[in-house]
Write a structure and sequence with these properties.
The complex is a heterodimer of chains A (263) and B (356). Chain A has helices at 2-26, 31-57, 65-86, 92-109, 124-159, 172-196, 206-227, 233-261. With 263 residues, chain A is mostly helical. Chain A has one domain (2-113, 121-261). The longest helix of chain A is centred in the middle third of the chain and has 36 residues, at 124-159. By secondary structure, chain B is of the alpha/beta class. Helix content of chain B is 43%, strand content 15%. In chain B, helix 4 crosses helix 6 and helix 6 (130-149) runs antiparallel to helix 12. Classes of the chains: A mainly alpha (263), B alpha/beta (356). At the A-B interface, helix 5 and helix 6 of A face helix 7 and helix 11 of B.
């Protein structure tokens, strides 16, 4: 039953994508209203799914890879709802929706929603650790999206090939400021999640620890590089894309390890 | 009741003709004495048009006589290519004018302000009645609708505005940008003024002739920089406008590269509007440097214009809908409404000052 909410949510995000494509092809684009409403509706359906699943489990619904992916997709939509309008990154919805749809379709189509018996008693520190780390993933995902927007805009200006999308993308400096803030938000939340892992009170698989620390080090280096002027803004934007791809892969590794190590 | 528009525009008249038939302050009085119940004169640098409402036909020749600035009104004006639109055609024409579809630069928005001013002038002296009031209010709504629902005003279409638009797409707000204008000619001055109008406050001017640099700096509230030290400014400026008459490039990649080392996270936008170019094309290969010469700016302006042209069909569709709705509403409303009920009084202007 709860999967219907996910399907409805995916449809909302798909409508946002279709609307963007049609409008950009026609050369007319009024991004804020429609995309924000469509992504907002999708977010409500996602929340409904997570609420129902959490209610059924009696704990935070991040107990298998399926739920983890949906939680990450929800975090991305959440950050878009908060960050998109605040930074006037009007076209961000058009870039956010495809990533969320991809994650949700992957979760819906792959046989990864294994029903599980209650193997471990609910542990509030573990749930806090996992959920806050996944919300940090939402910030990293949005930094990645802002990075893609930066690269698209930068390329247009550099190559003098100005397309219709140019007028809807924010200025380079605004995008870079948004990337930096999202990186800080993600890094802060991730650090909090990582630190809370020490209070779980149960031994965690070493591969999980290594993967989690690797993601933390990766984003720490990107931020360090940005503030010590090692990297130009374009490099930081590209690293946000590479970093999130790597983090997503490591997340799969962490979840897979947790599932295989759970007695 | 006849609604008509008689006029001249850049499509069919040269500047001299437009100047001659530019009308004068008494034009509406003259026209009302010749049988018009409502009159509005829209005179811009590219068009002179009379919008009128009359019970009986007022000939184009009579209107031409009134518009003619030559003193002797009894002599027939030399044949001028006046166009005339009646009723629905007149409504459609006004809507197209208000939307900028009939302008020399498609989609320009200045005409809407000019139309609002013309309406306000006619309303305040009592020349525009309820029919023209409805017509022009509708025209302003149509223009807003077209602007919102099409991309007809999108993109800059002149070299100067393309350069300033690009600067805004790189830096966002230009208020905190440091700009160096190299050269003190007319082009430099125009560009400097365009940048100041968009919020630039830190403007520097450098020129071989220190006196000319000082003069330009004084006129645009800038700071003059000795020509010997302009290159050092590249360490801290955000925008460089190069417009000198130098025959050889003034800036090469090897000169600029070392200056950029300390500013890796700050882009440098170079607008080279000099012919021959002042900046070596290889400079564009540097990371964080965006070099635009006159050709590339011109090319973007043309792209924008082409993009606007693609939007004409969509705009015409919206206009056609509004013309049909307007005709219908006028047919209904004029029968129902008592005389003068929709004529705004001088004290209750339908336009806010900000709309003018």
């Amino acid at each position: 039953m709860d999967r219907y909410f996910l399907i409805a949510s995916a449809v909302c995000f798909l409508v946002a994508i279709a609307h963007t494509i049609i409008e950009l092809r026609c050369g007319i684009f009024r991004p804020m209203r429609f995309n924000f409403v469509a992504v907002g509706l999708g977010f409500i359906f996602q929340t409904a799914f997570l609420y129902m699943r959490g209610h059924a489990l009696g704990r935070c619904p991040i107990t298998n890879l399926f739920e983890v992916i949906i939680f990450v997709a929800w975090s991305i939509a959440l950050f878009y709802m908060v960050v998109g309008p605040a930074y006037r990154l009007s076209l961000m919805g058009a870039f956010t929706a495809p990533l969320v749809v991809m994650l949700q379709l992957m979760a819906l189509l792959l046989p990864i929603d294994h029903t599980h018996r209650a193997k471990m008693p609910p542990n509030s520190w573990l749930e806090f650790h996992a959920s806050i780390s996944l919300v940090a993933y939402g910030a990293f995902a949005l930094a990645c999206i802002a990075g893609v927007m930066y690269l698209v805009q930068e390329r247009q200006i550099k190559t003098h090939q100005i397309h219709s999308i140019f007028y809807h993308l924010p200025p380079l400096t605004d995008l870079f400021a948004a990337i930096t803030r999202l990186l800080w938000w993600g890094f802060g939340l991730y650090t909090l999640g990582l630190a809370s892992g020490f209070f779980v009170g149960e031994p965690l698989p070493w591969t999980q620890i290594v993967c989690a620390v690797a993601v933390w080090v990766l984003y720490g280096l990107i931020l360090q590089g940005r503030y010590l002027h090692w990297f130009a803004p374009k490099r930081v934007a590209a690293l946000c894309v590479v970093g999130f791809s790597a983090a997503l892969t490591l997340l799969w590794g962490i979840t897979f390890t947790v599932q295989t190590h759970t007695p | 009741m006849n609604l008509f528009c008689v006029g001249l525009s850049h499509h069919n008249a040269d500047v001299e003709t437009l100047e001659r038939f530019g009308g004068n302050a008494e034009i509406d009085c003259l026209l009302r004495s010749s049988g018009c119940t409502e009159v509005l004169l829209l005179a811009t640098c590219n068009r002179v048009e009379i919008y009128g409402v009359s019970e009986s036909l007022v000939s184009t020749l009579d209107i031409a006589r009134c518009l003619d600035r030559k003193i002797d009104q009894h002599i027939s004006p030399e044949p001028a290519p006046f166009y005339r639109y009646e009723d629905a055609q007149c409504v459609r024409h006004l809507f197209r004018v208000a939307c900028g579809l009939d302008s020399m630069v498609i989609g320009e928005t200045e005409i809407l302000g000019q139309a609002k001013k013309a309406y306000e002038a006619a309303r305040s002296n009592g020349a525009a009645g309820r029919y023209l009031h409805r017509l022009f209010q509708r025209a302003f709504r149509v223009a807003k609708h077209v602007r919102t629902h099409t991309e007809i005003t999108r993109g800059a279409v002149s070299v100067g505005s393309v350069a300033v638009d690009l600067a805004q797409k790189i830096f966002g707000n230009l208020r905190s940008c440091k700009v160096l204008v190299l050269g003190a000619g007319e082009t430099s001055e125009k560009t400097a003024r365009a940048l100041v109008s968009r919020g630039v406050t830190d403007l520097r001017v450098s020129n071989r002739s220190a006196e000319r640099a000082d003069n330009l700096a004084d006129s645009v509230a800038a700071r003059a920089v000795p020509f010997q030290s302009w290159l050092d400014q590249c360490r801290e400026i955000d925008i460089l406008v190069a417009s000198t008459s130098s025959e050889a490039p003034l800036l090469s990649r090897s000169e600029l590269e070392p200056l950029l080392r300390g500013r890796i996270d700050r882009p440098l936008f170079i607008i080279d509007i000099a012919v021959p170019r002042n900046v070596d094309a290889n400079v564009d290969a540097l990371n964080g440097v965006y070099l635009y010469d006159i050709d590339s700016l011109q090319s973007i302006a043309e792209q924008s214009l082409a993009m606007r042209r693609e939007q004409i069909a969509a705009a015409e569709e919206i206009i056609a809908q509004h013309v049909a709705e307007f005709d219908e509403s006028m047919a209904r409303g004029l029968k129902r409404a008592p005389q003068g009920s929709e004529h705004p009084s001088v004290g209750e202007s339908s336009l806010r000052p900000s709309e003018l």
